[in-house]
Structures are given as C-alpha cells and as structure tokens.
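PROTEIN SPECIFICATION:
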Amino acid sequence: MTLATRRLGPLTVSAIGLGCMNLSHAYGVPPSEDVGARLLNHALDLGISLIDTAALYGFGNNERLIGKAILHRRAEFTLASKCVLDVIDGKRGLDGSPEAITRTVNGSLERLGTDHIDLVYMHRLDKRVPVEESMGALVRLKEAGKIGAIGLSEMSAATIRRAHAVHPIAAVQSEYSPVVRNPEIAVLETCRALGIGLVAFSPVARGLLAGAVHDDHYVPGDIRLHMPRFVDPNLSHNLAATRAFDALASELGCTPAQLSLAWVLAQGAHVVPIPGTTSIAHLDENVGAAALTLTPDIIARIDALFAGTIRGPRYAAPMQAQIDTEIFPDEELA
C-alpha cells in the first residue's frame, strides 16, 4: 500500500505514523509481544514509515519490542526515539544533562539492536539545564553517527527557536487534536516558518475522539486515571461534548477517529499525526483517514464544536510542571 508522504525537516515519512507507547504501557493492559510484533509488521505493510518510540516507554521494553519485531525491515521506516525522560533509579525521571542524554541514547541503541536512530527527540525540557547544553549532546551524538535528525517534544516556540539556533530541528512533537489546540498559540506557525515538522501525538485525544472512552472505569495503570479531563465530573461533560462530533463523522460516512485524524492532517502540510493502537482493525481504520479531504465548512464545524467546551486540565500538576508548551489564558491547570 502507498501512503502519501510529508516532510519532517530532512526526513520524508508517511503522512500518518505510528505511536508505539501503548504497545508497552499507558492505556490498559498492553498486548503480548507476539501481538505487538504483528501490529508493527502490519503497520509497515500498510505503508506507515514513521515508527515512534521512547526510552521511557515500558521502561525500555517498547524499544526492545521494536528491535525484535521489525529491525529486519529497517530500510522501510524512519525510527524515532526520545531522551531526557528515562528510567532513573527504577522510576520515571527527568534529566537533560549532556551525560544523561548520551547515556539514554546509547541505551536505546542497545535495546533497539541498531547503531543508528533516525530521529531523537528531547522528550521534555529539563528546566534545570539550558536547552543549548542539551542540544550540544545531541549534536555530538549526530556527529558520531549515532543519530540522524534532532527533535523536541512539548516545547514552546521560544525554546524551539533557541534549540534551532544551535542545530536545525527536524520535528517538534506536541499533543494536537480537535480538542487540544495548544500548538495553535505559537508552535504550529513557528514550525512552519522554520521548516520544522509538527508531529501530533494523541491525535484522537487519547481515545476520546475514537469512541474508546465511555466512563472512567479504567484498568489499574491507565494514565488517564491521573488526567483530570478523563475522570468525573469532567469526563461526563466531555463525553457529552463529543456526541455531536460522533454524529458529524456518521454524517460524513467515516469513523470519529478518521475524522479527527483528517482534521489534524488538514492543519498544514508539515503536520504528521502519530496515533497509537493495539488493534490491527483500528490501525487499518486510522490509515483510511489519509484518503479523506475535509472542506473548510466541515473544519469550521469541528472547530465550533469544541470552542471552550472541554473541561479539566490536560495533565495533573506533576506532569504539567514538565510541559513547556504554551497555555491559553483561560486554560485550566491542575
């Protein structure tokens, strides 16, 4: 299958990528290694050529899974991973020091079973370390041939410009969907102006716009248990707000997830969504969104549906403290 392609700086990737986090943790019980391997290979069969992981995902197990499952098809995809967030003393930790970045990337290379990662992001901004120092470590890793392009995740336009002045940034990851619009404050246009790709994670709003959330009875370990907008009383209100979106998808003859992904794709030729899934059927469904073209009227209707309607912060306070992305003046914070 042939998917349309888009540019992330110097990289050419499929217009829809695959976020791999939930193959190892985050949303319910992760699938078995065999099921995860089948899904990863099916993604490549569909023409998906951007595979996104991180050192933190599954405390390294996500990278190990990718290494076992698809590294024999290395020429078919762009491999992206992340540093700064990593496992420190057995727990999630943030360290943007050059030493930690080097250690994390070397660990990723070992777990993936490769000597080169195409794109490495700073997963979050460590505000204790000047971004220029963190970038210096990534530049040295690139000069050593261990990584290709450099990216940033959940960072503000000001931080992006500081990092880009050290070395060109290929891609910036940010949460972006019809219900999460923070990149529109400054990051979306900054990326466009600097020739940087915007990689949209959680483009179906962590299942909210994919018919996957019905109540807050999540299994233990689901990260949405700690996200204020995904638990009551906020969740009941937010689910009511999505009903008109679901109805619009039905009117257009597509699924809510496809409508959400098509909306993200319509926000600019430099935008690449990376939905995650543990289901091959949902993976097929997601790829189908690339064939949809939304008219300006439909985009305006979607925008109107969610103008100020979603309640609750994106993150709980400890997580929000690690987020550098701009916030709206009236945005709820934990």
In short: The mean pLDDT is 97. The domain at 5-320 is CATH 3.20.20.100 (TIM Barrel). Residues 234-252 form the longest helix (19 residues).
